[in-house]
Design brief:
InterPro entries: CDP-alcohol_PTase-I, HAD-like_sf, HAD_sf
Helix content: 40-55%
GO molecular function: hydrolase activity
Radius of gyration: 21 Å
Strand order of the largest sheet: 1-2-3
Number of strands: 3
Distance between the termini: 32 Å
Organism: Mytilus edulis (Blue mussel)
Protein name: Haloacid dehalogenase-like hydrolase domain-containing 5
Order of helices and strands: HHEHHEEH
Keywords: Hydrolase
Oligomer: single chain
């Protein structure tokens, strides 16, 4: 596929056809209630969950780092970075909840008012979340390979915003910064070597 003269068509092409057919037959615009698949977070969340299950079967406690290797900045890289942002936000929220738990634990008396109800609720949620905390990776790293959709010798796909493009779903809000990969390598072999190097 790296030698293909045009971008690959996938389910996005099907959706464009579906939207046009729906419009023509019904006279109304097709409304979506949910978006799944790359680059949606839920896809990477599911992959994280599967990695956790595999690690558990192998006797590992957890998987701290996920490395997503892909050739498309707008789906593979974007999705990995979007999921990493989710993981970082989640870690930040967990730290804040733990602080609240410490504060609540150090309080000798609690006058229960609306603020305290919220605090107690967050402490209870923190206890429940701590049980699930090890089920998630800490980081999701994106590695762009130059052997597929993105190739430095071609310029129909770019991640450096010189030529903005967006081939994602029409309802998907695009943040151009998330198309920036953590690493760029020439091929999958180099990507795997990079992962081994980082995890030594």
């Amino acid at each position: 596929m790296a030698e293909a003269s045009m971008p690959r068509f996938g389910h996005g092409c099907f959706l464009v056809c579906l939207e046009q057919l729906y419009q023509k037959l019904s006279g109304r615009e097709l409304k979506y209630t949910a978006l799944i698949g790359k680059p949606s977070e839920i896809t990477y969340h599911h992959a994280d969950h599967l990695l956790y299950q595999q690690a558990k079967q192998l006797g590992w406690e957890n998987v701290d780092n996920i490395y997503c290797i892909g050739d498309n900045p707008e789906t593979d890289i974007y999705g990995a970075n979007l999921y990493n942002r989710y993981l970082q936000n989640r870690a930040y929220q967990m730290r804040n909840m733990k602080k609240k738990r410490v504060i609540a634990g150090n309080s000798s008396t609690l006058d229960v008012d609306s603020d305290d109800d919220e605090l107690i609720s967050s402490v209870v949620n923190t206890i429940e979340d701590e049980e699930l905390e090890s089920n998630y990776a800490m980081n999701c790293h994106s590695i762009l390979v130059c052997t597929g959709v993105y190739c430095s010798s071609r310029d129909y796909v770019t991640y450096d915003n010189k030529k903005p493009s967006n081939h994602n779903h029409r309802d998907f809000v695009l943040d151009p910064h998330l198309k920036q990969p953590n690493y760029v390598v020439q091929n999958v072999h180099e990507a795997v070597q990079l992962v081994f190097q980082k995890e030594q």
